[in-house]
Write a structure and sequence with these properties.
about 200 residues; seven-stranded antiparallel β-sheet; 5 helices
Length: about 200
């Protein structure tokens, strides 16, 4: 992110220049391109095994939420429908801001290792009353190599959407969604709980 990115946030917060425009439309879009410092911090975070307690905590919170037991920190919400499954992980102190960004990128890398390819990786900024909402997105699809021969396509866990939401550059939550296809041209999707197991346990 260059200075222009932060300048746009500043202008949105402290000027009424673009009030009245639809908040549903982003006023700024760009591809995600982590700088050298961010990439170095990410690999140091991984090498120091700092991610392991965080992943374990989220996994325990997910299991507690499934059993409708009292949720642990971080707070986790689960979403289930016939064609979409997901969870939201809410940021809480004392996590470091960068650790939450690292978690978002780690989930991308873990999904990729399961036989997925990164289709979209972008960042969009939205007006939200007196705040600026930033949505970072990684969208992943099964790789062609993961498709079974013949007419039936192996959809694995479905298409995977990862979103990292910030309000005024402060972490808010990470959303993970698995959206599956129905129809005879697609295999039955793998179980979402299995995906959670592979990503967090």
């Amino acid at each position: 992110m260059d200075m222009t990115f932060f300048e746009q946030i500043f202008k949105r917060l402290f000027s009424g220049k673009n009030k009245g425009k639809s908040a549903a439309l982003p006023y700024h879009s760009e591809l995600i391109n982590r700088n050298i410092s961010e990439r170095g911090a990410y690999f140091k975070w991984l090498q120091g095994q700092e991610h392991q307690p965080l992943l374990s905590h989220i996994y325990q919170a997910y299991q507690a939420e499934k059993k409708q037991a009292s949720s642990l920190d971080p707070h986790v919400n689960i979403y289930n429908t016939p064609y979409s499954n997901g969870l939201a992980i809410y940021y809480q102190e004392p996590w470091e801001h960068m650790a939450f960004q690292h978690l978002f990128d780690l989930l991308r890398d873990k999904v990729t290792s399961l036989g997925y390819r990164l289709s979209v990786s972008d960042r969009k900024l939205y007006d939200q009353e007196n705040a600026v909402k930033t949505v970072e997105k990684h969208y992943l699809k099964p790789t062609p190599a993961a498709f079974e021969p013949g007419q039936v396509l192996n959809q694995m866990y479905g298409n995977i959407l990862l979103e990292y939401i910030l309000i005024n550059q402060k972490p808010n939550y990470i959303k993970l969604m698995a959206n599956v296809y129905a129809g005879r041209n697609y295999s039955q999707a793998k179980d979402f709980d299995e995906l959670i197991e592979k990503l967090f346990n």
